User: Fold these one by one.
Assistant:
Number 1:
Amino acid sequence: MTELLQFVLSGVTVGAVYALVALGFTIIYNASNVVNFAQGEFVMLGGMVTFFAWQAGLPLPLAAALAILAAAAVGVALNKLAVERARGAPVVSLIIITIGASIFLRGGAQLVFDKQLHRFPAISGDEPINIGGATILPQGLWVIAGAALVFALLYVFFTRTLTGKAILATANNRVAARLVGINTDHMMTLSFALSAAIGALAGVLMTPITLTSYDLGVAYALKGFAAAMLGGMGVPAGALAGGLLLGLIEALTAGYISSVYKDAVAFIVILAVLFAMPQGLFGRKSTDRV
Amino acid sequence: MLSVENLRSRYGRIEVLHGVDIEVRSGEIITVVGANGAGKTTLLRCISGVQPISGGGIVFRGETLQTVPAHRRVALGLSQSPEGRQIFTNLSVEENLRLGAYLFADERVETDMAEAFALFPILREKRNLAAGGLSGGQQQMLAIARALMARPACLLLDEPSMGLAPILVAQILDVVKDLKKRGLTVLLVEQNAYAALQVADRGYVMETGRITMSGPAEQLIADERIRTAYLGV
């Protein structure tokens, strides 16, 4: 029982990060129909920029804020310099552009920073907390709380503010959005900034546990994408469910079977779900988005 | 108020508007009638700025529109209820109306919404439901109400009668007449020529991307050629 609780705790921690990355995929997908494979690089930038700013003497909270802003700026640049310019191109071309951007960002990080693994101190120390016999790092609680806060804030943003609704309207019907006076280009840019900031926050929160390096974006992009597909691409609640589920499956497989198989089992479960429900768990049954 | 001069537009390499001239004066209801595929919707899309033009020009209240992006044209006082309604299906009726007034954040938004509900009471009943669940006629009402929320000086209406029962067509055209009484200028594009010419002051007949006839509505409605080609009598 204690064992199970332990696996669940670590699964939820990792799952919360996957959920944040999946949320980033979801926001950009909704705004532009593009699956942004550079999403993982925002996670990497969050950790790396924080570390190097902190090493340069900045207090950690300031370094983290700087990293999130820097990632948001990179997100805006990605939209303005690459995605927006290819407007009207087939979605597949846009996706390839984001893959290119991710390779570029990884290469850039290698040059600007370095190829080492880095870590900065956790927010409230590294003394494990005992919960019913199982333990969780305080940073794990920060990760879970951070993800919960982001989802709550975004829920309020999309349901209570006019700008949030304008993003939803742009996603729902772009021409109609322009006809009511919404600047849909701005909404796209805002979506990229938001996604990048969320990804970077995930990176900041996770680094004290998993460390960071220039090339960890690929793994996060893959897991976040899988989580988004599992939950249903384009549905924020699906991103949350998909992320947590993926984290739990991984942790339970690693615990009860072998950590060697955790990725394999996770992807087999995802394939099984997608065979039965191609829209994902929460996906809408629309087929017009090809 | 709105003048379209020698307007040309193309989809890819195929030109669909071959030089269209239209003049809309303040306070008028103008209708453009014509068969399916004549280019009427393209004309309105050009005026709203969601369809690129390849020649000619559009002037609205003294301002040249060609270089003005679509969202800025709404701010100038041009608002459209598009063909096929194009409502935000995932959002509620009330959210659709609120987004119609996207450019505004004052108290008038509330009074405008109350006015829209007075115009189409069924929308008040369904205000919290997803717009995608409304019937075709209700969606049409929502599209018109949403366009009115933008406080237009000139309202562009694209096929408001499409797919509606005759009683609903009459109801919607009554609303158009009502709007004219309040001083709104309306450019109404319709396949249902008879209904449109009954409420309009002047009309244009469009055929394969060109204006082939124009004049006062009662004159067009009496014209032998129009009667046989469009009115089915």
Number 2:
Amino acid sequence: MPRVTPQAIPIEVRGLVKRYGELVAVDGVDLTVEAGDVFGYLGPNGAGKTTSLRMMLGLIRPSAGEVRLFGRDPQLGVKALEGVAGFVEAPSFYPYLSGRENLRLFASLDGGDALERIEESLGIVGLAGCAKDRVGGYSHGMRQRLGIAAALLRKPRLLMLDEPATGLDPGGMRDMRDLIRELSAGGMTVILSSHLLAEVEELCNRVAIVRSGRIAYQGSLAELRAQAGDSYLLRTSDEARARAVLAAQPGIEGLEATADGTRFGARDESAVGALSLALADADAPILELSRRHATLEDLFFSLTEGDAPPPAAPAADGAPRRHPVEAA
Amino acid sequence: MNPGVLTVYRWELRKLRAQKRTYLGLGAAALVPIIFVVALATQSGQPDEVAFGRYLHDTGLAVPLVLLLFGSVWMFPLITALVAGDIVAAEDRHDTLKGILTRSVERQQVFAGKVLATFTYAVLAIAITGAVALGAGILASGFNSIVSLSGTRVSATEGLGLVGLSLCFYLVPILAVASIGLLFSTVFRNSAAAIVGTLMFSLLVQLVGILPGLGALHPYLLSTQFNAWQGFLRSPIDWGPVIRALWVCALYAAPALFAAVLVFLRRDVAGD
């Protein structure tokens, strides 16, 4: 029987598809999560993130494609989940049992020395004080934390979390992020789905941005930012004349009229310098000419809300891929 | 120790112990015999038209036997369905399947544990009814000999053994009902629908039994098998209905369980 080894890739997903009749919830997803990653699976609600995670955990049968967790197929049995833990959507428990009893139940189903980790896990998530209370009386945040505790019982090498901060108050969100950072620092690989850009930006080193069931980008956040490029904003006293100059100017592209002025892209800084001279020659005095850095939010929206469909061909393993919709 | 069916079974029993519906079912199993005996003690009449009805005032041994006859209409199917119809559907109600199916037990082990727990509950319900009915019946009517269906008198001790045997055999159709409840619970994913469905199935089968022109079906109806224990109370024992009940009930239970397992193994745990 293959054992979980540090060398095995935590998650490999190839051509994953899930159809519900006419609806294609997940459409050819390819993912690679490397050991040590805190991987953000980012996309708007309904993009297919949870369905993908359920398939990765063996809860849903893929219509096509395959998943490997540390090299093993979760569709073939729970052996593939050795070293893997997490939750999809809100973690759920038996409301008529106490928090501790719920963990005892899960630990019993885990086997090994999971039962011995109950108190430690309760302590890590800060629930030791109310572990004897029935889960039916727990708040949403407490259930989220109990979900993490239930995952920690398995001493996972790969933690899969679906919207872990959803429904938490700001303090709870901070605690959850601190905990994920702590677990990651301890060597755990984490994949977390989220529709919250800030959460992903704060925690993750790599991301996949999913849109309508398809991967629109996969790679590091740094690469994504680098690809975005910068834009410029121009405001003059004669916008019509300025736009005519912009349109005729070599190295200037992607003109967009905004309420603040005209936004454009430039091949390089010299093209912008030439533009300023041309505007002066054309008697269109410059009121503002500034560089605008693309924010991740701009990129996220451009990747997830553009009209054009995502590219059909999957990216090479781990290679960054840009959606053709222009960012920034 | 690696977790397996016994681990799931133990926790299913623990979960049953923590739920009100369990006590509702087992409470009814205990209460009905008491009400029956109290009603019997407060009046001189008796249900002469049913087997052993005329001996209710003569011996407490007749009480559980008469209750088995009355209970087959809806009481025992309902008590059984309360848990059988809920035990899988409750996981959907609480959305907990995703939690237990991502641990270290396989789906078939989870299902087997649930089947065993359901059967245990059904056994307990019948045992409680039998014990309470015997105790209350003996208190009210004494521990006396009983007349078998063949007209021969059976000593109290031997009669007690035959009552025990009858109660045990009554479990055969009860477990078939439990299997159908498990199927409905797995397929409907809704406790109320599964419980009502199981009861409706039980009542419909009885309805078929009283429809004119369908006499040839009677030996193969599940409802008929609830009377098979009477074969033990003939002298000599009439094995015909007993043996038929075994295979007829298996024909109801096995496909139901098989279908339920298939659905459970193949289903997507996709939430709402």
